[in-house]
Structures are given as C-alpha cells and as structure tokens.
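Sample pair:
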Amino acid sequence: MRALIKLSVILITTVLFISACKLMPKEEEKKAGFIDGHPAWIMQGNVYEVNIRQYTPEGTLIGFEKHLGRLKNMGVQTLWFMPINPISKVDRKGALGSYYAVSSYTGFNPEFGTMDDWKAFVKKAHEMGFKVIIDWVPNHAGADNVWLTTHPDFFVKDSTGKAAVAFDWSDTRQLDYKNKEMQDSMIAAMKYWMNESDIDGFRCDVAWNVPGPFWTRCIGELKKIKKDIFMLAEGDKNYLHPSGFDATYPWAMFHKMIQVAKGQRPAFALDSVKNYYDTLYPKNALELYFTSNHDENSWNKADYATMPGPVHAPFAVFTQTMYHSIPLIYSGQEEPFLDSVSFFYKDTITFSRYNREKFYKTLLDLRKNNPALASNASFKKVTVGDDKALYAFVREAGDKKVLVILNLSAAEQTIKVTDSSLHGQPYNVFMGTKEPLSDKEWKIEPWGYVIYTY
C-alpha cells in the first residue's frame, strides 16, 4: 500500500513537473516580450501601409506627418512605409520611377525629405505609440545602384556578362545571393536603418526569391539590435516562416476572397485555404490579411473594383478577425479612394470624407482590446445557415469570446444560431448594444456582417 502511495506521489510530482516545464517557456517568453515566438506587440496589432508619394499633394514625409493624429485616433498601430530609398534614374519607368528600383540602400529619397526628417518622424511616431517598419528590397537593386559600380560581382550576370535584369522588371538588376560579401553588405545596410532611426522591423519585398539560409542569418543578426522586431515577408513559400519571418502573405486566401466576392466560389471555399495553411505552415505562423495593398490597387483595381460598394465590408471584417491574421489597411481605404493609384507618376490620394474611418476604428479598437481576436486566439467554425453564403466562426481566449457572422453573398440570408453556448445577451459591436441571441431565426442583409462579444 505504502509502495502504491509512494508511486502515486511520484507520478503526480512528475506530471506537475512536466506541466510546469511546458508552462515555463511561455511565461518566460511573455516576460521577454514575445508570444508564440512573435513580438507581443503585434499579436493584437495591425498594419497601415503608407504611400508617401501619393498621400499628400506635396508627397513628403512632413506632409504625411499631419495625418498621424487622425490615424492614431482610428486605431492604427504599425506604419509600414513603402521604400524610402532613392530611386534609380537609369531605365526608370514613368516620370518618377518605381519605389522598388533602389539606387542606394543607405540613402533617403530626397523627394520625401531628408534623413534628419526621417529620424525626427520615427521619434515622434514612437512617442505617439506607433510602431514603424520600412519596405526593404533585397532581391534586386535599381539599374544604377551604387553597387553596380563598386561591387559588380554582387549581381547575377546575363549571357553578355552584364548584370541581369530581375524577372521582367527592366529597371532593376538581380542580386547574387551566392556572393557572401553581398549578403554581408545587405545585412549591414538593414542594420544601418535600425541603428540610425530605431525602426521596428521590415516588410521584405520578393522575400520568396531570396534563400532561406540568408534570412535565418540576417534576422538573427537584426534581433541582436532589437530583439522584438517584426519581420514581414512578401511571399507564401513554406520556408519563410522557419527562416525567421513572423508573417507572410496569404495570397491563396486573398484570391479566394475575390472569387467569393464575384460569386464564382461559395463562402465555404475559404475553409479549403485555411486547411491548406494549417498543413503547410508552422502552428504559430501569422498571415497579413488584406483587401488591398499597393500592388493590388495599382495593377488589379483593389478594392474598389474587386470588392465594390457594400461587397467590401464583410471581407474587411474577415481580414480583421480571422485566425492567425494581422490586418492591413492600405493608404486611402478609410476614405475610400475609389481609383487605382499610379505607380510611376504623381497621383495624389484625395482625402475628405473618411467614410470608412468609423468602421475601421471599430474593428481596430476591438482587436486591440479583446484578446479573443489576438492572432493566436482559438478559432472554431460554426454553422448558422446556408454555408454557401454564410461564413461564421468563434474566436476565444480565456474568458473572452467573439462570434463573427458574415454574409458573403448578394442575397438576404436566414440566420439560426443553434449552438447554445452562443445564446444569451452578447454585445453587438457595430450596433453598440446588448441583444438577445437564441435559436430563433433572423435575417441578415446582402453582404451583411455582425460581430458579437461575450
């Protein structure tokens, strides 16, 4: 009997010890400023993409700075600046050239202001509570980048021995990642921006064409300067997350959203993409969800043509509330600016009405204040009616719960919530009041959306 009791005590002690070991890393991680391996500050955060050139008539950093108070009030947390480096003049496209044809990795584009302007801006943004990340172009350099003269061996050569054009982007030249010195120089340039202006991370352009081992080494080096930097990869290849990126682009989900918006696919088609990501990526992988960005707006008419009028709202709610999401808003979407913004010419975004500002503020504030919408909060799909048209799910963390119901169709739908755990008097976020919810049927308008909090 004593032996049995002793054995039981040993077993209980062992279980408690193992449990403590499992909990300790998470507790230590949180104290160190991380959650699930990511900077804690991004888990209930968001990203706002800034197109300096087109944001104001003057197209300068100082011009954009006037909008900081408004964006702060809207709930914006992280400012992602499209490339702020000088733009190459050789093989330049259009009058102003592409932001992604960089002539110097350590220079500041004089069209936007000076390096001192940038340092002062980041300091002010930080004082206001913003995070600041910059767009980085590591795959290719502009056609007159200084490295073409000082280090011609940094570039892949074409059949004539000249620096090769990257893909069909005639204003750029392909960098050679087989060259260790080039890799070192690229990392040094990224460190320069962290050391000189205290930025909080990078959005890495065409990250999917840069080798994983470089990213692992690069991100490790950058974290020696600021351990909680946020690293965002433009790309969806499965090696990007294990290489150190916090978030990638959910291109498959974005394209599926557009198909659903056009009525080409049912709402439940979104599940196939989620399931695909669940098997493709690590369990802690984050995705940058969006309805538009600079590329999709300029080249594919997002969101004003891809999700026109009332179609946009439920998909915007989806991007703000989905599992493992970090939501993105592009310059002008809060207006909304219903046109494609030119890539190579001056084309100022017009701000006057801010018709979506209250809508976005409601979503951004909810995400910030409710842990059930943190990127790592649990996700459960629920059926509330015709799943060809309706997409509903529950997010939950601790004692907080959020129910999201979206009508992703052009027809009125009937809602019936049969899950008794969702019944009661939840708070309707957009109506601003508590209301009874039971298994009684009710209607939701075409492209309608409801968020309940518990």
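The first helix runs from residue 2 to 31.
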